[in-house]
Amino acid sequence: MSHIVVVGAGQAGAALVAKLRSEGFGGQITLIGEEHVPPYQRPPLSKAYLMGEMALERLYLRPESYYAENGIDLHLDETVNAIDCADKVVIAGGHQLKYDQLALTTGSVPRRLPGSIGGELRGVHVVRTLADVDAMVPEALEGRRVLIVGGGYIGLEAAAVCAKRGMQVTLIEMADRILQRVACPETSAYFRDLHRSHGVDVREGIGLARLTGESHVTGAVLSDGAELPFDMVIVGIGISPATSLAEAAGLEIDNGIKVNALGQTSDPSIWSAGDCASFPFRGNRIRLESVQNAIDQAELVARNMMGAGEAYDPHPWFWSDQYDVKLQIAGLNTGYDRVVVRGGVPLVSHWYYAGERLLAVDAMNDPRAYMVGKRLLEAGKSPAADVIADTETDLKTLLRA
Asked: By residue range, what is the domain housing residue 34?
């Protein structure tokens, strides 16, 4: 009987094993995860779960009973130490598992502050796993002072939750503006104004020189020389693909575990999907750090492990919740040369163009703009910029054009 082993029990791993069963795979399936709980959603960790508005069980992607009921051997709290590609063996703990095909859905790891500047002090947190947030909750108390390092989506979401919890929030971003790597200046300005309106002290072009404190963090010295007291620090400076296991096994690495359009690594018996995998996309090689990619790529890999032979051609979408604002993003804005603004607060959308070609849409509290933009991108349509900017235009009519 054929045996498929999946290493990494996050969103991608859970989607992959479920798809194998729903597509009729009748062999043995083993899913191995390092955490002590079954696969769960990560996006609510820094929002509803940190706010205390979501119970642990509601985080689970499926009830724990699902795995046994569907013949999926779920190994929790288990670390895979090595892969023997020649013998097709996964070495985990004190035992070995033979596989016929292997999928690596190992995800990503948060970048941390170096110990030399105080990154190992107690009270310094990252937001990635359930354990990370559980460690943070007792310290995130009303009136306390928190420093958020990093003005990307994770940092901004953490800042919003901390502000809603009544904390005194300072956010620093080393780049010239928040969201500089992922969004246009107009979107940065929108969220800068939003956070400042909620009392967050947003400081751009400011880095962290060092944290202060003996065993627990007590403050920070910033790159401009300012020294401020803090009770806790949340670090949101990005993530890195978890490739160490694949690299040690001799698989090709290129900004992640390198896969072809099918999701196959340099070893034809080993596949990869999710945050950890880099794949060919429109002449480039990219990784996508999103729920959409984790699910869609994992489900495609599951089908391809069964012989479907389908190439991955994603239509990326993302979202972020901050205060009462839902940001929805369709497409990838890489290479844009202008931004068309439609509407104004509270409903506004930013449309990214390269020449006459529509690349992406950021929609703030404007689900219609997001929905239409997403469908236009999927259809390869690019409405004229002046038509988009005109708020008299009924966006739905563009789908029929």
From this structure: 3-109+240-305
